[in-house]
Structure formats: C-alpha cells, structure tokens
Task: inverse folding
C-alpha cells in the first residue's frame, strides 16, 4: 500500500509539472521527472506518506475556498479600481485589530494571506491572539474582519 501511495504522489507531481510546463522537450520532461522524484523522496523521508491519517487528504473544501477567494479578489479589485479612478479619490485608510478563531498555525497563515491577497487590504501583524489589518478604506478593512472569511478558513482546518 505504501508503494502505491508513493507512485501515486510521483505520478500526480509529474502530471502537474507537465500541465504547468506546456513544453515537451526531452530535457524538460526529464527535469520534471527528477524534480517530482526528489519531492516524492523528500515527502517519504519526512514521513508524510507513511500512514493513512497523514499525507494526501482528498477533500474538496480547499477547492471551494479557492473559488470563493478568487471571487472575493475580483470583487475587491473592482472596488479598488473604482476608488482609484474616482476624481475625489475617496480613501480612508484605517487599521483594524481582531481576534482570529483559527486554532492551527496553517489556519492562521491561510487567513492572514487571504486578507493580504485581497486588493485594498494588508495583514500588518498576525499572531494567534490578534491580527492587525490595514485597509484602503475603513469599510474594506472592516470587511476582512467579517465572520465570513474567518468562518471559511476555520472550516478548512484539519483538526
């Protein structure tokens, strides 16, 4: 079973390499294979492929979260564009502090980076106790403090 898992990871990594590369020269195909093999061996050495409860987790929650985040980024990009193109430049920079509800380091990182990826907002400080978020507008900063982002990231956490 372990051998099958190792071969599956190798095949997935190599397929992903080919998908992103788009070039099919012998050198690049070989380089992609050896890079995929190296990452697979590293995962094996770190013990990420040893048992069923670690390693690959087949879960659709991250895909749903990424789709939601992309939609939020598009909406926020449109809002920032409208603000920049407005003749009066209606900005009201603000800093907002709030307590995240995530319990894992990965959850905190995903939450902080999701805020920073959204145009018009930036995570200035992030800790388990408190986030400090800068927003181009006060409503934009408050919007990232809303419970929706926090709830969606909390739902992603592996507990």
Result:
């Amino acid at each position: 079973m372990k051998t099958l898992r190792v071969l599956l990871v190798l095949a997935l990594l190599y397929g992903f390499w080919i998908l992103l590369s788009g070039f099919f020269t012998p050198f690049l195909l070989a380089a992609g294979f050896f890079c995929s093999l190296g990452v697979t061996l590293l995962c094996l050495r770190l013990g990420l492929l040893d048992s069923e409860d670690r390693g690959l987790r087949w879960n659709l929650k991250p895909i749903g979260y990424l789709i939601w985040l992309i939609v939020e980024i598009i909406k926020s990009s449109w809002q920032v564009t409208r603000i920049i193109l407005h003749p009066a430049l209606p900005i009201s920079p603000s800093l907002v502090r709030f307590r995240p509800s995530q319990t894992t380091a990965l959850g905190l990182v995903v939450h902080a980076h999701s805020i920073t990826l959204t145009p018009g907002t930036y995570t200035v400080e992030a800790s388990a106790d408190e986030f400090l978020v800068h927003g181009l507008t006060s409503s934009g900063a408050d919007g990232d403090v809303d419970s929706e982002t926090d709830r969606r990231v909390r739902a992603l956490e592996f507990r």
Remarks:
- The chain is about 60% helix and 10% strand.
- The chain has two domains: 2-45, 61-156.
- The helical segments are 2-21, 26-45, 61-85, 105-117, 138-144, 147-156.
- The mean pLDDT is 85.
